Amino acid sequence: MRLPSPREYVPATPAGRSFAVTSLINAIGTGLYLAGSAVFFVRSVGLTSAQVGLGLALSGAVGFLTTVPIGALADRLGAKPTLVALQLWRAGGFVALAFAQGMVSFTVISCCLAAAEAATQPMTQAVASATTEGTDRTRTMAIIRTVRNVGFSLGALLAAPLLAADHVWTYRGIVLGTAAAFVVSAAMLSRVRAATAATVQKKVNPLAALRDFRDWRYLLLTALNGVLNLHTTILSVGISLWTIQATDVPAGFLPVLILINTVMSIVLQVPVSRLVDREGGAERALRRGGFALTACCLALALTTAPSSVLVAGAVLLAACVLLTFGEMWQAVGGWELSYDFAPEDRKGVYLSVFSLGNAGQRIVGPALIASVVIAAGPAGWIALAVLFAAAGLLVAPVTRMLRTVAPHPVEKEVAS
Length: 416
Hints:
By secondary structure, the protein is an all-alpha fold. It has helices spanning 14-45, 49-77, 79-98, 102-130, 137-165, 168-189, 216-228, 231-246, 254-273, 281-302, 309-340, 347-373, 378-405.
């Protein structure tokens, strides 16, 4: 794989470049919050771990239910105005969260935030696509994903001294800093000009958008992508718990794995996105993602076999590398296929439906990985590998069905 030149990390259009800077600021705020949220919940809001888990589970369900109605509303109002409103909504929610006390206020505010956060991803994809020209869409999304990884890291670094101060107002400062980042992001986003003319969108009743959705083939693609999105939970929950509970590898090795995942995502996401420039490339990327995740799970199943800690650590490292490639291939394949098979006049609804796959895995994934896969030992990882392999194999027939009924996807030109 040829590494790109520095210019390839810069979006081709002025609007794309402006949107990338906006995404960086947004990600710094998110990284700031993610680094300090657990401590904030306990020491500022006054919650137990069980209360945090329950509140976040309820908010996840709310986000799942509200994503498509907000997407239908975006088809009426436009993706960019909707995304600006969502950023301001999130800013207001974080200001309220900074002063929350107790379980009830935390849960109510978290549910309001979850509705905005769940709808942000498909709206980001829609706006990013509007800032590009021709076939540059997936590369721009890859750049934005790279920028977001950089922003998350910077935000986490900014949170470190605030957490070290160990005072209620520094914890609140983390949350208020996140709110400020979203306000700046919204202000900058409002000035971004689309590179392509907006398509007239079909007006859909937001409350009936999901009930009236009839494209079952697109739902199958959504489900496959949701299965492959389990890589998120494997990275955040699965590898850590498995390493601690089932291997002799020291816990101090875990930050190294996270660092490797982050660095690989920053350096390689743009080169990986080149795959979709070829005809059938998006389908191939999603399929490769499934097979890479299959190999990752098989490697995790093998980490209990070596008697040497060094060998087990090496196998764990290989699993992390496979996971990262699976994550990158899934991302670019999912972006391209979800957009290509969404009708031009219903982008908001279709992209919101597609995002439900990821939202669903966020609800089901932690319990599945922690309570079923890890509890079953190596056999659990082997069973998950079979699931990923099946998802990868089904990508081709599902996309074939979508192509036979939908004339709107744009075929790629074969790269020279």
